[in-house]
From TrEMBL:
Domain AB hydrolase-1 residue range list: 203-379
Family: Belongs to the AB hydrolase superfamily. FUS2 hydrolase family.
Protein name stated in the entry: AB hydrolase-1 domain-containing protein
InterPro entries per the UniProt record, alphabetical: AB_hydrolase_1, AB_hydrolase_fold, FrsA_esterase
Source organism of the structure: Aspergillus mulundensis
PANTHER family, alphabetized: CONIDIAL PIGMENT BIOSYNTHESIS PROTEIN AYG1 (AFU_ORTHOLOGUE AFUA_2G17550), DIENELACTONE HYDROLASE DOMAIN-CONTAINING PROTEIN-RELATED
Signal peptide (UniProt feature, chain positions): 1-25
Taxonomy, superkingdom: Eukaryota
Record flagged with keyword Signal: yes
Amino acid sequence: MKASLFSGPVVGLFASLLLNRPVLAANNTDPDPPTLPLSSTSNFNFNFLVGLSNALSGGADIGPILGVAQKTQAAPGDFPFYTAAFHELALETKAQAEDPDNAFDPINVRDAWFSTAHYFRRADEVNHRNWSNPQINSFWEEQTAAFNKGLAALPIPAQRIQIPAREDNFTIEAIWYAASESNSTKLPTLIIGNGLDAAQEDSYHHFVAHALLRGWNCITYEGPGQPTVRRTQNLGFIPEWERVVTPVVDYVLSEKAHVVDTDRLVLLGNSFGGYLAGRAAAFEPRLSAVIMIGGPWDAYAGFTTQLPSELLPIYEAGNYTQFDDTVLSLREAGELPPDAAWGLDYGLWAMKTHSPSEFFNLTKQYRLDDVADRIEMPVFIADAEFEFVSKGQGQRVADAIGPNAQRHLFNGTAGYHCQTGAYQELTRTMHAWLHKTLGKGQGRSKSA
Ligand SMILES: *[C@@H]1O[C@H](CO)[C@@H](O)[C@H](O)[C@H]1NC(C)=O
Ligand SMILES: *[C@@H]1O[C@H](CO)[C@@H](O)[C@H](O)[C@H]1NC(C)=O
Ligand SMILES: *[C@@H]1O[C@H](CO)[C@@H](O)[C@H](O)[C@H]1NC(C)=O
Ligand SMILES: *[C@@H]1O[C@H](CO)[C@@H](O)[C@H](O)[C@H]1NC(C)=O
Ligand SMILES: *[C@@H]1O[C@H](CO)[C@@H](O)[C@H](O)[C@H]1NC(C)=O
Ligand SMILES: *[C@@H]1O[C@H](CO)[C@@H](O)[C@H](O)[C@H]1NC(C)=O
Ligand SMILES: *[C@@H]1O[C@H](CO)[C@@H](O)[C@H](O)[C@H]1NC(C)=O
């Protein structure tokens, strides 16, 4: 991918589309970033913040992430370069994890393997353009194997679980994390799901580690379109997310009933997963509360904001062939800004279509319009000052849900999409809301 927007052989339609649009800077620099930028490419900056944040819970070290940031300065917006830099870090860290001297205690084991797993995930992030690229699966097999070594070395080893979807043909991939060794203490429990791209393994670092310390059990899950299910079952996203969450709730209330406080069973959805959680909650009265981090109201409205504005009218005019040809040619020529290029590469793969117009068609099914008024439990909406995907949508979600919803605007340095870079503030705020809303104190103080 080229570093400069205008360096490619831009001709005809594309030239006229682009030359009027200097905003399409290849580096996508945030105009007024709340933190020191770690890259001139905003989606790299965002990924480095994700990377640094994982250090809070043993999923990264600071220096190595900043080291990749430094290397990629030579190649802003260059996805293969970024991928290679993280791949190299993943292999170096894996070699450290495999050193027999490392295995002497479980803390060494989980730090080294969780970090290895995470660096493979970071390498995967911008590597979805070519579906035949064998790294899409090989990096994932590496991250899964590494992460499993970390799971086994936790103080209470976590358990991978496959949950068959009741009336469907897919299997939900989940991980159960118990907060207590006791087999009879009923503890509050979080059910955690992501959105378009993050993996359930990321959720350990973003939410689970912080919740376990507070005495909450956790179960993370992935459904169709999400990283492991997309790969192993070859399934793209489905809008009716209750088909995924209801079987998870069934599992928790049957298999884990002896350790779950059913008055504090909470669904958390992250990013596009905010929509997914809201949708599922409308059909799942057994949930005590819902947390939507990023509160997408309408996926079509959110994803189209990532499109250069000249392209949307072509789609909306209904010339789908012209739209697909234009978008794919711009991508091929390296002329899409990195945020749009990433969204296109990853979005097509996750929705399992090669057609940009079909992608946008599909996103229209993901909206809370028809179901928001059926959400009857308390809802916490984490909104962000610098939201770039669902800007302005958090308030709409709150308005549609009504008095049960509380929207919290994270601003300043906690104001990135999903509070990336400020997971401590996010989890503090979220647990304070849970405490206030569901009462009974947090898990540990209440248990016994
Ligand atoms: C980003 O791109 C713009 C336009 O090409 C350029 O003026 C600006 O200096 C770049 N910013 C950085 C931080 O590289
Ligand atoms: C995609 O990857 C496959 C496997 O590495 C390769 O054979 C093919 O040429 C690649 N396609 C493109 C368009 O780069
Ligand atoms: C499950 O798969 C079978 C066989 O492929 C198909 O006939 C059926 O419609 C599928 N059911 C659902 C709910 O997708
Ligand atoms: C915990 O209790 C459940 C339900 O009573 C039982 O199925 C399970 O075997 C018990 N596990 C242990 C480790 O005792
Ligand atoms: C769609 O766009 C293509 C390319 O610009 C053009 O040739 C074709 O006539 C258009 N089709 C319609 C139905 O407008
Ligand atoms: C997108 O939706 C429109 C309108 O329903 C339809 O005509 C078109 O064929 C769809 N495009 C694709 C690629 O599915
Ligand atoms: C963030 O919001 C708080 C409360 O609304 C306000 O006092 C503070 O000035 C805001 N900070 C920034 C950086 O916008």
